[in-house]
Amino acid sequence: MTDTANAPLRIVFAGTPDFAAASLQAVLDHADQNHYEVIAVYTQPDRPAGRGQKLVASPVKQLALEHDIPVYQPLNFKDETDRQALADLNADIMIVAAYGLILPKAVLDTPKLGCINVHASLLPRWRGAAPIHRAVIAGDTITGITIMQMDVGLDTGDMLLKKECNIKADDTSGVLHDRLAMLGGEALIEGLEAIKAGTIHPEQQNEELTCYAEKLTKQEGEVDWTQDATTISRRIRGLLPWPGAYTHTPAGVMKIHAAKLLDTEEQDFEHGEITMVSKEGIVVAAGKGSIMVTELQFPGGKRMSVQDALNGKFKDQLQVGKLLGSQA
C-alpha cells in the first residue's frame, strides 16, 4: 500500500500495441477519481512501417504524448543507465501490458509494489506470446484477463485477479482481441484498487495446467484441407487479422479473409475441392465437412467478396471442381 491513503499511486506504465493502450487509457480515465499518477511510460522503440518505412510511434507512445507523459524507449534494461532511470522515478508500481521486453529481476524489484501484468488469458492456460490466437485455434470457449504479479519466469507469477470472457463461435482473434483489451482495462482498475486497499490474495499457478502460446508464424497460415472443417475454421479465425490464412491456386496464393464452418459431415469429395459456388461464397471440402470462404484476395488484387471475385479476372479459379491447396 502507499504511504498514506490519499497519496497518489505513482505508476509507471510499460506497453506497446493497441491492447496495452486500452489499459493505459483506463488508468488515465480513472486517474483523478482513484488518485493515480502516471509518471512515465515505457514502450518499444519506434519501428518503420508502411510503404515508406517511416518510423512510427507505438499506440502507447502516441497516447502518452497526448497526455504529456514522459516516454522512455530503451532497447532493453541491460544498461545500468536505463535501470537507474527507472529507479529515479520512485514509482509505487509498474504496470506491464504487451510490452515486448523481458524484464530482469532488478527491474521487477524496482517499484515499491513490484510489477503487475495484464495478461490476455486465464492463467495458467496460455502463457506466452500469442494467448488470444491460440485460444481461438484450440477451440476454447472461455478465456479472459489475468492480472498477475510478475516474476522472472514467463507468465509464471502469482495470479491477483481474473475476469472471464466467452469466445463466440464466429470470433476471430481480432474481434476477441478488442473485447479483451477493454476487459483488460476494467480488470486492471479493479486490481489496482484491491492492491491499494490491501485486499488482494495472490494465488499460485498450477503448473500441471499450463500450456504455451507459441509466437505466430506466416507458415501457419497455409490451410491443410485434409484436416476436418472444424479445425480449419478455428485456424482461419485464429489467424485473423495476422498472419492470415491462405491456400494455393493455379493463379497463385489466395488469402482467406473470412470464412465460416458450413458442416461437419463426411463427404465424397477430394480435399480442397470446390463443391459449390454462389454469391455468398465458395464451399470447399475438408477432410471431414466443409468450409464456406466468403472473402478472399488474389495476388496483386484487393480484399473482396466472393461475389466480386466471380466478376473478376480470377473467376476461373473459383469454379466447381477446382482444387485448392498443395494439389492445385
From TrEMBL:
Swiss-Prot/TrEMBL catalytic activity: L-methionyl-tRNA(fMet) + (6R)-10-formyltetrahydrofolate = N-formyl-L-methionyl-tRNA(fMet) + (6S)-5,6,7,8-tetrahydrofolate + H(+)
InterPro entries recorded: Fmt, Formyl_trans_C, Formyl_trans_C_sf, Formyl_transf_N, Formyl_transf_N_sf, Formyl_transferase-like_C_sf, GART_AS, Met-tRNA-FMT_C
Protein's UniProt keywords contain Nucleotide-binding: no
Annotated binding of (6S)-5,6,7,8-tetrahydrofolate, by residue: 121-124
Keyword hit for Transferase: yes
Class of this enzyme: transferase
SUPFAM superfamilies: FMT C-terminal domain-like, Formyltransferase
Signal sequence bounds: none
CC per GO annotation: cytosol
GO terms for MF: methionyl-tRNA formyltransferase activity
Residue ranges annotated for the Formyl transferase N-terminal domain, each copy included: 11-190
Domain Formyl transferase C-terminal: 215-313
Entry EC no(s): 2.1.2.9
Keyword terms, alphabetized: Protein biosynthesis, Transferase
Similarity annotation: Belongs to the Fmt family.
Record function comment: Attaches a formyl group to the free amino group of methionyl-tRNA(fMet). The formyl group appears to play a dual role in the initiator identity of N-formylmethionyl-tRNA by promoting its recognition by IF2 and preventing the misappropriation of this tRNA by the elongation apparatus.
Protein name, UniProt field: Methionyl-tRNA formyltransferase
Higher taxonomy: Bacteria, Pseudomonadati, Pseudomonadota, Gammaproteobacteria, Oceanospirillales
